Amino acid sequence: MSSRVAVVTDSTASLPSRLADRFDIITVPMQLKIGSELIEEAYVPTDRLLRAMEAQIPITTQPPAPDAFFWAYQDAWAKGAETIVSVHVTPKLSPATDAAKQAAAKSRVPVFIVDSHSSGMTLGFAALAAARIVQSGGNVQNARSVAEQRGRDASVLIYVDTLHYLRQAGRVSAAAKVFGDALSVKPLLTVVDGEVEPFDKVVGRDRALAKLVDKAVALAYGRNVDLAVEHFAAEKEGHELLQMLQKRIPHARDVVLTQVSAAIGANVGPGALAVTVSPF
């Protein structure tokens, strides 16, 4: 690590490894409890998670243990970091930030915790922005400020085949719970102040995704943006959605297609798609 500032995040950022490696971002894995077994999500293949979901085996997500963050901070210090910017999933979706704070209190170097106000690539782009600042010679205050700003300014638009998994995980707001379960009605969701909220419902998958694209285009209009499409067990559909977006948002700088972390996948269910628009 050449920089004196390290950037740490958690795996709900869903960052492709090529980007995390390129920008020296340290990623601490969340945990999944599948039945009675507690496993770091890095060791949960998608097919195993899908089989567990199909078999209706209870699945819960848990934050990294405080020691996991502590050793990530120790590793950064050992490689020369004098300060750390630690960017995380909003506390409203996971207690991961609490675990990070516990570890920060024991860290050998100062750790600045940043709430991304969301998860997924909203968090991913916030961590990337901080790492870019660091690699260009910026200080910890610059990196922290940019990460906070990117988290606040980003928008995420979510399509799910069913609200079943989000309801089961207790991740939807009271407003979203009123959506019916008719197979033809597809809820479109967003994250507001850390809460999963509805913004529309559309009959039919194709219409729902067209609406998602229209909304993303409106959010990106006239702005410099990074763009991501996230999916869970729907890579082909994610690629098609990305192509639709690139035709209509050709000015996007970073364009990312990624599968969400297993912790997010367990909450949204197979077939879920999301678009993150992150202005800079």
Task: Characterise this structure.
By secondary structure, the protein is α/β, with parallel strands linked by helices. The protein is 40% helix and 26% strand. The chain has 11 helices and 13 strands. The protein has helices spanning 17-22, 46-54, 66-78, 96-104, 120-135, 140-153, 164-168, 174-177, 205-220, 235-248, 262-268, and strands spanning 5-10, 25-28, 31-34, 37-40, 59-62, 83-88, 111-115, 155-159, 185-192, 195-203, 225-231, 255-259, 273-279. The strands form 3 sheets. The chain has a 6-stranded mixed β-sheet with strand order 10-9-8-13-11-12, sandwiched between helices. It has a 4-stranded parallel β-sheet with strand order 2-1-6-7, with helices on both faces. It has a 3-stranded antiparallel β-sheet with strand order 4-3-5. Strand 6, helix 4 (96-104) and strand 7 form a beta-alpha-beta unit. Helix 3 (66-78) crosses helix 4, helix 5 (120-135) packs antiparallel against helix 6 (140-153) and helix 9 (205-220) packs across helix 10 (235-248). The longest helix is centred in the middle third of the chain and has 16 residues, at 120-135. It is globular and about 55 Å long. The model has no long low-confidence stretch (mean pLDDT 92). It comes from Lentzea cavernae. This is EDD domain protein, DegV family.
